[in-house]
Design goal:
The protein is an alpha+beta fold. It is built from seven helices and 20 strands. The protein folds into two domains: 215 residues, Lipoprotein localisation LolA/LolB/LppX (outer membrane lipoprotein receptor (LolB), chain A), CATH 2.50.20.10; 106 residues, Protein Transport Mog1p, Chain A, CATH 3.40.1000.10.
Amino acid sequence: MAGVAVLCCLPALASALPVSGTGLTARQLESRILGSQRLTFSGYAESDANFGLPALPAFSSVTPLLDGVSRMRVWEAAPDRWRVDTLSDTGENDTYQVGVNTFVWDSGEQLLTGIYGPQTVRLPRAADLQPAALAVRIINEAGTGAKVGTLPPQRVAGQSAAGLEITPAAPQSTIARADIWASPTSGLPLLVEVFDRGTTQPALETRFLQVGFWTPDAGVLTPQHGAGTGFTTTTPDDFSGVLKNLDDALLPGSLAGLARQPSPVPQIGLYGSGLAAFAVLTFGRETGCQLLRDALDAGAARLTYPDGTGAVASAPLVNLVLVRPARSPDTFLLVGLVSKATLEQAAGTLAAKPEAGS
């Protein structure tokens, strides 16, 4: 019994160990974090999000990631060679990245799906929230104009971690700051906290509870399915769920004062940049009407424009607006890391267009 008690206390003891300063500047730590993409590692991570967006059936796979705890086992050999298992009380979903191809294992369905080809557009997935991936994305999206500073070190996953604070420059961004703690020697991100404006608690926190360097094992990174299980293949377009119902629309060159950026998918308009950006997705009559009904049924506030109707849902970090112009069969979904007022202004412009965003 004494031995069991000692083992149970080890995590608490590790977190209580002293931490030491690193002497790294903010830019030096930032550089090491970006360089950590070359590392091979494995670990166990948990993300905790409190967004509170309405639960839309069309985006049911995303809802658990934005509200609640996601538990993940992570193995990474390279940016395009990794595996992330998402664990739940009812089973697990495993995602394998093998070059440009992706494989997804669903333990409930006992089905392995191979998605062949690069996914230029997809819904968020748990792998996006593991600390190493999220930290690198935040730094890259924050851009050179973001303010960076150091934070006091703390112990994460049994390691002394150096802290980096990133403050976006764009006033439209919903992100007040992002705090990243990483190994001062390897640069591997261990903990990421993202704060909404006007709050003291992070809206999103993801951390490794256990992590270490790892020699890649081909068996771990190779998708497999046993006897009695299924295997199917598809293309990225077919695997996009509701996104395969996107409609073509002629969108304006700017919305709410933010310029339109090049998009890999013509049906999606991207406005703004980095951590102050939003997307405009255009859906045809049937899908769009259903999305609008679902949003209102889930508690989104109704919007009324002189030339259309819509719904708005405001949450920490992410805001969402749906608008259906009176003189168009299309419905526009606007979502991103910008203020609710910015999205409502952009939706009003789309509602006033004579034809489907033309």
